[in-house]
Amino acid sequence: MDDGNGMNDRQRARPTLKTIAFMTGLGVTTVSRALKDAPDIGADTKERVRLVARQIGYQPNRAGVRLRTGKTNVIALVLSIDDEMMGFTSHLVFGITEVLSGTPYHLVVTPYTHVKDPMMPIRYILDTGSADGVIISRTEPDDPRVRLLIDHGMPFATHGRTAMGIDHPFHDYDNDTFAYEAVRRLVSRGRRRIAVLQPPSKLTYFRHTREGFERALRDFGAEEAPFTTVNTDTSLDALRIATDALMRQPNHPDGMISLSSSATLALVAGIEAADHRIGETVDLVSKQPSDILPWIRREIIAANEDFRLAGRELARALLDRIAGKQTGQLQTISEPVFAGS
Protein backbone atom coordinates (compact mmCIF):
# COMPACT_ATOMS: atom_id res chain seq x y z
CA MET A 1 0.00 0.00 0.00
CA ASP A 2 1.28 3.48 -0.93
CA ASP A 3 1.62 6.01 1.91
CA GLY A 4 1.16 9.07 -0.33
CA ASN A 5 4.92 9.70 -0.55
CA GLY A 6 5.58 7.05 -3.17
CA MET A 7 6.67 4.39 -0.64
CA ASN A 8 4.94 1.06 -0.14
CA ASP A 9 4.84 -0.83 3.17
CA ARG A 10 7.86 -2.97 2.32
CA GLN A 11 10.02 -0.01 1.36
CA ARG A 12 8.95 1.99 4.42
CA ALA A 13 9.73 -0.90 6.79
CA ARG A 14 13.22 -1.61 5.45
CA PRO A 15 15.88 -0.44 7.95
CA THR A 16 18.43 2.01 6.57
CA LEU A 17 21.58 3.77 7.75
CA LYS A 18 19.31 6.62 8.87
CA THR A 19 17.37 4.15 11.07
CA ILE A 20 20.58 3.07 12.80
CA ALA A 21 21.74 6.68 13.12
CA PHE A 22 18.45 7.66 14.79
CA MET A 23 18.58 4.70 17.21
CA THR A 24 22.23 5.24 18.18
CA GLY A 25 22.27 9.04 18.18
CA LEU A 26 25.15 9.02 15.70
CA GLY A 27 25.52 10.64 12.32
CA VAL A 28 24.79 8.66 9.16
CA THR A 29 28.42 9.00 8.03
CA THR A 30 29.68 7.65 11.36
CA VAL A 31 27.27 4.71 11.15
CA SER A 32 28.36 3.95 7.60
CA ARG A 33 32.05 4.06 8.49
CA ALA A 34 31.50 1.92 11.59
CA LEU A 35 29.83 -0.78 9.49
CA LYS A 36 32.81 -0.62 7.10
CA ASP A 37 35.21 -1.16 10.03
CA ALA A 38 36.91 2.18 9.42
CA PRO A 39 40.09 2.51 11.55
CA ASP A 40 39.18 5.99 12.81
CA ILE A 41 35.96 4.75 14.47
CA GLY A 42 36.28 3.46 18.03
CA ALA A 43 35.68 -0.21 18.88
CA ASP A 44 32.83 0.62 21.27
CA THR A 45 31.06 2.67 18.60
CA LYS A 46 31.48 -0.08 16.02
CA GLU A 47 30.05 -2.66 18.39
CA ARG A 48 27.07 -0.44 19.29
CA VAL A 49 26.30 0.18 15.61
CA ARG A 50 26.63 -3.50 14.69
CA LEU A 51 24.44 -4.54 17.60
CA VAL A 52 21.64 -2.21 16.50
CA ALA A 53 22.08 -3.27 12.87
CA ARG A 54 21.67 -6.92 13.86
CA GLN A 55 18.69 -6.21 16.08
CA ILE A 56 16.73 -4.37 13.38
CA GLY A 57 17.80 -6.71 10.56
CA TYR A 58 19.69 -4.10 8.57
CA GLN A 59 21.10 -5.29 5.24
CA PRO A 60 23.06 -2.99 2.91
CA ASN A 61 21.68 -2.44 -0.56
CA ARG A 62 24.09 -4.58 -2.58
CA ALA A 63 23.38 -2.85 -5.87
CA GLY A 64 24.01 0.54 -4.30
CA VAL A 65 27.24 -0.58 -2.64
CA ARG A 66 28.54 -1.95 -5.93
CA LEU A 67 27.67 1.22 -7.83
CA ARG A 68 29.41 3.41 -5.25
CA THR A 69 32.50 1.31 -4.54
CA GLY A 70 32.83 -1.26 -7.33
CA LYS A 71 32.71 -3.95 -4.61
CA THR A 72 30.06 -6.52 -3.76
CA ASN A 73 31.12 -7.14 -0.12
CA VAL A 74 30.53 -10.82 -0.89
CA ILE A 75 32.84 -13.78 -0.28
CA ALA A 76 31.92 -16.84 -2.36
CA LEU A 77 32.53 -20.29 -0.90
CA VAL A 78 32.55 -22.77 -3.79
CA LEU A 79 31.72 -26.11 -2.22
CA SER A 80 30.81 -29.53 -3.53
CA ILE A 81 27.37 -30.62 -2.33
CA ASP A 82 28.78 -34.16 -2.18
CA ASP A 83 30.96 -33.14 0.79
CA GLU A 84 28.09 -32.51 3.22
CA MET A 85 28.28 -35.39 5.66
CA MET A 86 29.12 -35.45 9.35
CA GLY A 87 28.93 -31.63 9.43
CA PHE A 88 31.90 -30.81 7.17
CA THR A 89 30.11 -27.94 5.43
CA SER A 90 28.45 -26.52 8.53
CA HIS A 91 31.74 -26.46 10.47
CA LEU A 92 33.57 -24.74 7.61
CA VAL A 93 30.79 -22.18 7.07
CA PHE A 94 30.60 -21.46 10.80
CA GLY A 95 34.33 -20.75 10.96
CA ILE A 96 34.21 -18.42 7.95
CA THR A 97 31.21 -16.47 9.25
CA GLU A 98 32.87 -16.07 12.66
CA VAL A 99 35.55 -13.98 10.97
CA LEU A 100 33.27 -12.18 8.49
CA SER A 101 30.80 -11.14 11.20
CA GLY A 102 33.02 -8.23 12.22
CA THR A 103 33.45 -6.99 8.65
CA PRO A 104 31.26 -5.61 5.83
CA TYR A 105 31.54 -8.95 4.02
CA HIS A 106 28.84 -11.59 3.71
CA LEU A 107 29.25 -15.24 2.76
CA VAL A 108 27.48 -16.77 -0.23
CA VAL A 109 27.79 -20.53 -0.69
CA THR A 110 28.01 -21.53 -4.35
CA PRO A 111 27.30 -25.27 -4.56
CA TYR A 112 28.27 -27.70 -7.29
CA THR A 113 28.67 -31.46 -7.65
CA HIS A 114 32.19 -32.75 -8.24
CA VAL A 115 30.99 -35.21 -10.90
CA LYS A 116 30.31 -32.18 -13.12
CA ASP A 117 32.63 -29.43 -14.36
CA PRO A 118 34.16 -27.76 -11.26
CA MET A 119 35.09 -24.76 -13.42
CA MET A 120 31.45 -23.75 -13.92
CA PRO A 121 30.91 -21.93 -10.59
CA ILE A 122 34.25 -20.14 -10.93
CA ARG A 123 33.40 -18.95 -14.46
CA TYR A 124 30.00 -17.77 -13.23
CA ILE A 125 31.50 -15.71 -10.40
CA LEU A 126 34.09 -14.16 -12.72
CA ASP A 127 31.61 -13.47 -15.53
CA THR A 128 29.05 -11.84 -13.24
CA GLY A 129 31.47 -10.11 -10.85
CA SER A 130 29.31 -11.45 -8.04
CA ALA A 131 32.04 -11.66 -5.36
CA ASP A 132 35.13 -9.83 -4.15
CA GLY A 133 36.91 -13.03 -3.22
CA VAL A 134 36.56 -16.80 -3.54
CA ILE A 135 37.29 -19.83 -1.34
CA ILE A 136 37.65 -23.21 -3.06
CA SER A 137 38.30 -26.74 -1.82
CA ARG A 138 39.21 -30.16 -3.29
CA THR A 139 42.42 -28.76 -4.73
CA GLU A 140 44.43 -30.57 -7.39
CA PRO A 141 48.22 -30.45 -7.89
CA ASP A 142 47.72 -28.51 -11.13
CA ASP A 143 44.39 -26.84 -10.47
CA PRO A 144 42.80 -25.02 -13.45
CA ARG A 145 40.57 -23.01 -11.09
CA VAL A 146 43.64 -21.48 -9.46
CA ARG A 147 45.07 -20.52 -12.85
CA LEU A 148 41.78 -18.95 -13.93
CA LEU A 149 41.40 -16.95 -10.71
CA ILE A 150 44.98 -15.69 -10.96
CA ASP A 151 44.55 -14.78 -14.64
CA HIS A 152 41.49 -12.67 -13.72
CA GLY A 153 43.11 -11.07 -10.67
CA MET A 154 40.42 -12.42 -8.35
CA PRO A 155 41.55 -12.75 -4.71
CA PHE A 156 41.10 -16.32 -3.47
CA ALA A 157 42.13 -18.86 -0.86
CA THR A 158 42.18 -22.63 -1.15
CA HIS A 159 41.26 -25.31 1.35
CA GLY A 160 44.21 -27.52 0.47
CA ARG A 161 47.45 -26.97 -1.41
CA THR A 162 48.52 -27.17 -5.04
CA ALA A 163 51.85 -28.15 -6.62
CA MET A 164 51.91 -25.48 -9.31
CA GLY A 165 54.88 -23.46 -8.14
CA ILE A 166 52.47 -20.56 -7.60
CA ASP A 167 52.25 -18.78 -4.26
CA HIS A 168 48.65 -18.40 -3.14
CA PRO A 169 46.75 -18.25 0.18
CA PHE A 170 45.71 -21.61 1.60
CA HIS A 171 44.88 -23.55 4.71
CA ASP A 172 45.53 -27.27 4.77
CA TYR A 173 45.55 -30.28 7.07
CA ASP A 174 48.78 -32.26 7.40
CA ASN A 175 47.61 -35.51 5.82
CA ASP A 176 51.20 -36.74 5.49
CA THR A 177 51.61 -36.64 9.28
CA PHE A 178 48.14 -38.11 9.82
CA ALA A 179 48.89 -41.15 7.63
CA TYR A 180 52.31 -41.63 9.20
CA GLU A 181 50.95 -41.42 12.74
CA ALA A 182 48.03 -43.71 11.87
CA VAL A 183 50.40 -46.46 10.74
CA ARG A 184 52.60 -45.95 13.80
CA ARG A 185 49.65 -46.34 16.14
CA LEU A 186 48.39 -49.44 14.34
CA VAL A 187 51.82 -51.08 14.43
CA SER A 188 52.09 -50.30 18.15
CA ARG A 189 48.97 -52.45 18.54
CA GLY A 190 50.57 -55.34 16.70
CA ARG A 191 49.00 -54.65 13.31
CA ARG A 192 51.17 -55.39 10.27
CA ARG A 193 48.90 -55.61 7.22
CA ILE A 194 47.27 -52.21 6.73
CA ALA A 195 44.72 -50.91 4.23
CA VAL A 196 44.07 -47.22 3.62
CA LEU A 197 40.90 -45.70 2.23
CA GLN A 198 42.35 -42.74 0.42
CA PRO A 199 40.99 -39.74 -1.52
CA PRO A 200 40.70 -39.70 -5.33
CA SER A 201 44.15 -39.74 -6.93
CA LYS A 202 43.54 -36.42 -8.74
CA LEU A 203 43.46 -34.46 -5.45
CA THR A 204 46.60 -33.01 -3.89
CA TYR A 205 46.04 -34.56 -0.51
CA PHE A 206 46.11 -38.02 -2.12
CA ARG A 207 49.83 -37.42 -2.73
CA HIS A 208 50.40 -36.19 0.80
CA THR A 209 48.57 -39.20 2.23
CA ARG A 210 50.52 -41.68 0.12
CA GLU A 211 53.86 -40.10 1.04
CA GLY A 212 53.17 -40.36 4.78
CA PHE A 213 51.65 -43.84 4.50
CA GLU A 214 54.48 -45.34 2.44
CA ARG A 215 57.19 -43.77 4.61
CA ALA A 216 55.56 -45.20 7.73
CA LEU A 217 55.28 -48.69 6.20
CA ARG A 218 59.04 -48.62 5.57
CA ASP A 219 59.91 -47.16 8.98
CA PHE A 220 57.75 -49.56 11.00
CA GLY A 221 58.05 -52.74 8.93
CA ALA A 222 54.38 -53.03 7.93
CA GLU A 223 52.86 -53.92 4.56
CA GLU A 224 49.96 -52.54 2.56
CA ALA A 225 46.74 -54.45 2.03
CA PRO A 226 45.54 -53.08 -1.35
CA PHE A 227 42.18 -51.32 -1.20
CA THR A 228 42.26 -49.45 -4.49
CA THR A 229 38.86 -50.18 -6.04
CA VAL A 230 37.23 -47.52 -3.85
CA ASN A 231 38.07 -44.09 -2.44
CA THR A 232 36.52 -41.45 -0.20
CA ASP A 233 34.20 -40.34 -3.03
CA THR A 234 32.69 -43.82 -3.40
CA SER A 235 29.09 -44.16 -2.24
CA LEU A 236 28.67 -45.41 1.31
CA ASP A 237 26.81 -48.53 0.20
CA ALA A 238 29.53 -49.44 -2.29
CA LEU A 239 32.15 -48.85 0.41
CA ARG A 240 30.32 -51.14 2.81
CA ILE A 241 30.16 -53.91 0.20
CA ALA A 242 33.83 -53.50 -0.77
CA THR A 243 34.94 -53.56 2.88
CA ASP A 244 32.88 -56.66 3.58
CA ALA A 245 34.54 -58.41 0.62
CA LEU A 246 38.02 -57.25 1.68
CA MET A 247 37.60 -58.51 5.24
CA ARG A 248 36.44 -61.95 4.05
CA GLN A 249 39.70 -62.58 2.20
CA PRO A 250 42.18 -64.99 3.80
CA ASN A 251 44.86 -62.27 3.86
CA HIS A 252 42.53 -59.54 5.09
CA PRO A 253 44.03 -56.43 6.71
CA ASP A 254 44.36 -56.25 10.47
CA GLY A 255 44.55 -52.45 10.40
CA MET A 256 42.63 -49.83 8.40
CA ILE A 257 43.00 -46.08 7.91
CA SER A 258 40.18 -43.80 6.73
CA LEU A 259 40.58 -40.26 5.42
CA SER A 260 36.84 -39.54 5.76
CA SER A 261 34.64 -39.74 8.84
CA SER A 262 31.51 -40.41 6.80
CA ALA A 263 33.26 -43.22 4.91
CA THR A 264 34.28 -44.67 8.27
CA LEU A 265 30.63 -45.44 8.97
CA ALA A 266 30.57 -47.67 5.89
CA LEU A 267 33.89 -49.29 6.84
CA VAL A 268 32.54 -50.17 10.27
CA ALA A 269 29.43 -51.72 8.71
CA GLY A 270 31.52 -53.75 6.26
CA ILE A 271 33.98 -54.92 8.89
CA GLU A 272 31.21 -56.13 11.19
CA ALA A 273 29.24 -57.72 8.33
CA ALA A 274 32.32 -59.89 7.72
CA ASP A 275 32.20 -61.00 11.40
CA HIS A 276 35.20 -58.96 12.53
CA ARG A 277 35.32 -56.67 15.53
CA ILE A 278 37.14 -53.36 15.80
CA GLY A 279 39.70 -53.53 18.59
CA GLU A 280 39.86 -57.33 18.37
CA THR A 281 40.65 -58.71 14.91
CA VAL A 282 41.17 -55.32 13.30
CA ASP A 283 41.95 -51.76 14.38
CA LEU A 284 40.68 -48.65 12.61
CA VAL A 285 42.12 -45.12 12.51
CA SER A 286 40.02 -42.31 11.10
CA LYS A 287 39.88 -38.54 10.76
CA GLN A 288 36.83 -36.80 12.21
CA PRO A 289 35.56 -33.20 12.24
CA SER A 290 34.37 -33.45 15.84
CA ASP A 291 34.45 -35.95 18.70
CA ILE A 292 31.73 -38.18 17.28
CA LEU A 293 33.25 -41.44 15.97
CA PRO A 294 33.91 -42.91 19.44
CA TRP A 295 30.15 -42.56 20.04
CA ILE A 296 29.67 -45.07 17.23
CA ARG A 297 32.49 -47.44 18.21
CA ARG A 298 34.65 -46.40 21.12
CA GLU A 299 37.50 -48.58 19.79
CA ILE A 300 38.04 -46.31 16.75
CA ILE A 301 41.32 -44.40 16.94
CA ALA A 302 40.26 -40.89 15.94
CA ALA A 303 42.21 -37.80 14.90
CA ASN A 304 40.45 -34.47 14.76
CA GLU A 305 40.45 -32.27 11.66
CA ASP A 306 39.11 -28.91 12.80
CA PHE A 307 37.03 -27.56 9.91
CA ARG A 308 35.85 -24.60 11.98
CA LEU A 309 39.49 -23.60 12.41
CA ALA A 310 39.99 -24.13 8.68
CA GLY A 311 37.09 -21.77 7.97
CA ARG A 312 38.54 -19.09 10.21
CA GLU A 313 42.01 -19.39 8.68
CA LEU A 314 40.64 -19.29 5.13
CA ALA A 315 38.50 -16.22 5.84
CA ARG A 316 41.40 -14.35 7.46
CA ALA A 317 43.74 -15.24 4.61
CA LEU A 318 41.28 -14.11 1.96
CA LEU A 319 40.45 -10.82 3.69
CA ASP A 320 44.17 -10.11 4.08
CA ARG A 321 44.72 -10.91 0.41
CA ILE A 322 41.89 -8.57 -0.60
CA ALA A 323 43.61 -5.92 1.53
CA GLY A 324 46.85 -6.49 -0.42
CA LYS A 325 48.88 -8.64 1.96
CA GLN A 326 51.57 -10.85 0.38
CA THR A 327 50.47 -14.43 -0.28
CA GLY A 328 53.48 -16.02 1.41
CA GLN A 329 52.18 -14.78 4.75
CA LEU A 330 48.73 -16.29 4.18
CA GLN A 331 49.50 -20.02 4.24
CA THR A 332 48.73 -22.25 7.24
CA ILE A 333 48.73 -25.98 7.96
CA SER A 334 47.06 -27.62 10.96
CA GLU A 335 48.47 -30.72 12.60
CA PRO A 336 46.35 -33.79 13.38
CA VAL A 337 45.27 -34.11 17.01
CA PHE A 338 44.60 -37.69 18.07
CA ALA A 339 41.97 -38.29 20.73
CA GLY A 340 43.62 -38.92 24.07
CA SER A 341 46.94 -37.42 22.97
Q: How would you portray this structure in words?
A:
By secondary structure, the protein is an alpha/beta fold. It folds into three domains: 9-59, 434 Repressor (Amino-terminal Domain); 74-168 and 307-336, Rossmann fold (3-Layer(aba) Sandwich), CATH 3.40.50; 175-304, Response regulator (Rossmann fold), CATH 3.40.50.2300. Helices cover 44% and strands 16% of the residues. The chain has helices at residues 9-13, 17-24, 28-35, 43-56, 62-69, 88-100, 119-128, 144-151, 175-188, 204-220, 236-247, 261-273, 293-296, 307-322, and strands at residues 74-80, 106-112, 133-136, 156-159, 170-173, 193-197, 223-224, 255-258, 283-288, 301-304, 331-334, 337-338. It has a six-stranded parallel sheet with strand order 2-1-3-4-5-11, sandwiched between helices. Helix 10 links the parallel strand 6 (193-197) and strand 7. The longest helix has 17 residues, at 204-220. The chain is elongated and about 75 Å long. The termini are far apart.
